[in-house]
Structures are given as C-alpha cells and as structure tokens.
C-alpha cells in the first residue's frame, strides 16, 4: 500500500463528497491559487488498498501549475462506500463506470487528464479503452502490462485466503507481525500510522479480494491501448527507479510497445506520487502542458 508523506491539506486542497448517478464518492480537490487561470483538469485514481490521500503530495504542486485536480477513493476504498459481500460489484466495468460518473459530476463535457497508480492504472487503462475521446491524456503510474510478478501473486493469494476466514483487524495484526519479524517498524509519524490502520479497516473486504484477483489475473492489453495511441490518445508511462509489483523493465517495455515516453522518477519505488511528490507533479504537469 502507498503511504502519504503527510496528512494536513495544503491551502489549495479541500476534501469533498460527490453525489453521482452511481452513489457517493469521497475526493480531494485542488484548485489553482486565486487569480491563476485553470489550464486543465486531472483525475487521480489510487491503487490497491490505497486512497485519495496517496496523492496529497502532488495536489498542491499541480494546482500551482494551473491545474484543477481531483483525487478520489474508488468504491469500497476508505471513505467511499462499497458493497460488502458482492465481488461482482467490483468488476472492472463497474469501476470504469464509476470514473465516468465522477467525471460527469465534477468535470462534465471536459476532456480530463487521467492518472492511475498501480491497480488504479489498470482501471484507468480500461477507461481509456472504453472511451478514449473523454480523455485529454492517460498516465500509467507504476502499472505493468498485465498481472503482477509471481512473488506478488503469491502474496495476493495469501491475502485472499486470509480474508475468507479472518476479519480485517485480524489480517492487519498478522501483516504488522510479519513486518516486525522482518525488522520493519510502524510509520514514524503516529498520525500517518493511525491513518493507515483506519484506512485498512474502512476498506470493503469484498473489494480487497476482488481487486487482488484482478491484479493476479490481468490480461496484457498493451496492443489494444497502442491502437488508441495510434488514433491520437496521449499516454505517459511513469515509474519509480524500482518497483516490487511490476519490474521497471516491464514498464519500460510497455512504453516501448505503446511508442510513448517512459518517465523514471529518481529516488522513488512503487509510489512516486507519495515518495517523490514534487518531481512526480512536475513530470505530470510537464506532460499535460505538452498535450494542450
């Protein structure tokens, strides 16, 4: 999971709830400072067991570049409700339909720069395949061409098995014990550590299990996306210098197959948005500027 670098909202950022045709969605909104023109709009989609706060570090820098930006909790994530016992409710078409409903509410009739991190990148890719004309651009952040690497598949299967017999609190306790056994300590900021615990407990178990299955069974849709690129969709592949879920070499190969740029954020691993937010925001804004 991604760990936000901080939790206090910058002056340009506010927390909201959007009432859409598909229910309520919690989101953060960043607007350019007073008097600064809006040059475009972005929607940021978090990854597996993540949330809108994963993007808290990039929101203000993007707003100060003139962009209106939304970061949301997907259904079943943190502060956005989701069905508790209906795996089909988390099927990919449902998640894509949620994105369109959010955009219909927050940015109707406006092409949007769509950014998906990790699992959110798979959802964003599906949205781009579904309706590329609705997008100004697509950024695949720390997202691979297909299912995660084998070591992560094994971890996901363990998690799915655990969720079938244990509560979220019990699974959390087990994960923290594994961390302790490996010498890993809780986050040094008690507020962030408490947030991570609260966010985990607020997730829908059915949503976690369904998402885990998608991560380990995702087909390679790079050729289909390449056809959208050939038809005019602007795409950026962005990664850290290292990645435990999809090797950076896989992501570089995805960019090559798409015929698009692969931007590597130095000093970042799987979550450049949280680990190197200033550099990540600059890379996104530079790409978005070039699209206009």
Automatic annotation (TrEMBL):
A Gene Ontology molecular function term of the record: hydrolase activity
Keyword terms: Hydrolase
Short name of one Pfam family: Abhydrolase_1
Top-level taxonomic group: Bacteria
Membrane-crossing segments per the record: none
Start and end residues of each AB hydrolase-1 domain: 43-193
The name this protein goes by in its record: Alpha/beta fold hydrolase
Species for this entry: Streptodolium elevatio
Lineage of producing organism: Bacteria, Bacillati, Actinomycetota, Actinomycetes, Kitasatosporales
């Amino acid at each position: 999971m991604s760990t936000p670098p901080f939790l206090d909202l910058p002056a340009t950022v506010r927390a909201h709830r959007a009432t859409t045709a598909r229910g309520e969605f919690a989101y953060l909104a960043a607007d350019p400072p007073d008097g600064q023109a809006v040059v475009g709009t972005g929607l940021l989609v978090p990854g597996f067991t993540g949330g809108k706060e994963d993007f808290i570090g990039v929101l203000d820098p993007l707003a100060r570049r003139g962009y209106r930006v939304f970061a949301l909790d997907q259904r079943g994530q943190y502060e956005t409700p989701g069905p508790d016992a209906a795996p089909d409710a988390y099927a990919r078409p449902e998640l894509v339909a949620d994105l369109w409903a959010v955009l219909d509410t927050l940015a109707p009739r406006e092409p949007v720069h769509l950014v998906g991190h990790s699992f959110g990148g798979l959802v964003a890719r599906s949205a781009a395949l579904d309706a590329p004309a609705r997008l100004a651009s697509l950024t695949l952040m720390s997202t691979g061409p297909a299912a995660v690497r084998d070591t992560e598949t094994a971890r996901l299967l363990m998690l799915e098995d655990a969720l079938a017999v244990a509560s979220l609190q019990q699974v959390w306790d087990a994960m923290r014990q594994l961390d302790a056994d490996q010498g890993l300590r809780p986050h040094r900021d008690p507020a962030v550590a408490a947030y991570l615990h609260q966010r985990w407990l607020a997730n829908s178990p059915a949503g976690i299990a369904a998402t885990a299955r998608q991560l380990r069974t995702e087909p390679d849709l790079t050729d289909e996306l390449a056809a959208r690129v050939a038809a005019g969709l602007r795409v950026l592949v962005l990664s850290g210098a290292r990645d435990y879920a999809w090797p950076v070499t896989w992501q570089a190969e995805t960019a090559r197959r798409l015929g698009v740029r692969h931007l590597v954020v130095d000093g970042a691993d799987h979550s450049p948005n949280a680990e190197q937010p200033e550099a990540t925001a600059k890379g996104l804004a530079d790409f978005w500027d070039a699209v206009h």
